[in-house]
Amino acid sequence: MTTREEAARLDAAGPATGWRERFALPEGVVYLDGNSLGALPVGVADRLVRVATHEWGRDLITSWNPTAAGGDWISLARRVGMRIAPLIGAAPGDVHVGDSTSVSLFKTMVAALRLRPGRRVLVVEPSTFPTDGYVAAGVARLTGAELRWCDPADPAASLDDDVALLSLTHVDFRTGAMYDLPGLSAAAHEAGALVQWDLCHSTGAVPVDLTAAGADLAVGCSYKYLNGGPGAPAFTWVAPALQPDLDQPVQGWMGHASPFAMQRDYEPADGMRRMASGTPPVLALSALDAALDAFDGVTVADLRAVSLSLTDLFIRLVADRLPDVEIVTPREHERRGSQVSLRHADAYGIVQALIARGVVGDFRDPDIARFGFAPLYVRHVDVLDAVDHLVAVLEAGEHRDPRYAVRSTVT
Ligand SMILES: Cc1ncc(COP(=O)(O)O)c(C=O)c1O
Ligand SMILES: Nc1c(O)cccc1C(=O)C[C@H](N)C(=O)O
């Protein structure tokens, strides 16, 4: 059994030294929900104030161009994309930032169908985060393509000559299980299909090398492990070889080759700039830009080492102390993201009772209690404390409190 002293030693000796201080976390809270909403990095509030007062308030519209205060809003999305690129194995100019993940999925799915005109099937995994399936169904309805649900245990079995795109989520939001990104990318290509990865639950916690894997398209949000804040803009990546033929459906003026020439006819900009549609969300991009400072000097390999050490410890302690609780997240490192999910009939009550004790995880219908381990700020001592509280909740029956019989709207 790991003692608190041993856990504290692991925290002090590991590569995570100094990482947690980059966040403004409330005292006494063990935050295990960074896989839904990342914590607040220290520089973000000041940056937002500066952008609002100096760039917007004082410099007004001149801030679209570079100013003494900073400004240069017009290139902000591109600059933020360049900072996300190394976390996903992308070249610096190949990441567009600006829409929600759902809207990004719409654009990339339509674009992928247009890149494979002879094929009309979109393959999606049915237990993925719902928005991926909803958008795929909408795209199918709009384009006349067919949506084919694959077997989650064997997505490659659904590939054939009709498939234009295999679209998968790298790390599953419910179970924390991780797909073999290079292997499934290769399988899609063998069938002549393109492959897209939803990296919402990977980026910033799990190593991803889209270039090495030969993937075609990817999307991901920035409010989870990237800590960009609620509603922070998502990113899109498309393999450089596909960019010249990329034809996305929301062709707006910001994706035009010369937006300020205000021409009548649309002419796409070069490269990923054409993925833009309208005016970029400058305030949200500024928050994200400041949030990414928390990754300065941090390698993805170190993030992964810390993440695995945390999830290993949580899994081991739960297995030892609560043998009746089912751990649904895979034990094998190569199949695990950065969260651990437990199955229990009273999962909702467990999560609420833990929150009342200052341990914040979340619940996913119908019976999953989810715990995310954001390696930049979760410590081994937090893992120990979380499991102590979990054991105490179950022993005292706190999860059966009648207050938890009715669920809140947002879980
Ligand atoms: C895998 C996955 N894809 C997409 C989304 C939704 O993205 P958005 O709300 O940015 O459209 C989420 C979570 O919200 C998610 O977990
Ligand atoms: N995006 C969210 C939101 O606006 C409110 C509440 C939760 C979320 C989430 O991110 C959910 C998340 N994708 C999940 O994995 O469940």
TrEMBL record:
Its EC number is 3.7.1.3. The modification N6-(pyridoxal phosphate)lysine is found at K224. Pathway: Cofactor biosynthesis; NAD(+) biosynthesis; quinolinate from L-kynurenine: step 2/3; Amino-acid degradation; L-kynurenine degradation; L-alanine and anthranilate from L-kynurenine: step 1/1. Its cofactor is pyridoxal 5'-phosphate. One of its GO terms (cellular component) is cytoplasm. GO terms for biological process: anthranilate metabolic process; L-kynurenine catabolic process; L-tryptophan catabolic process to kynurenine; NAD+ biosynthetic process; quinolinate biosynthetic process. Belongs to the kynureninase family. Catalyzes the cleavage of L-kynurenine (L-Kyn) and L-3-hydroxykynurenine (L-3OHKyn) into anthranilic acid (AA) and 3-hydroxyanthranilic acid (3-OHAA), respectively. NCBIfam families: kynureninase (TIGR01814). This is Kynureninase. The gene is kynU.
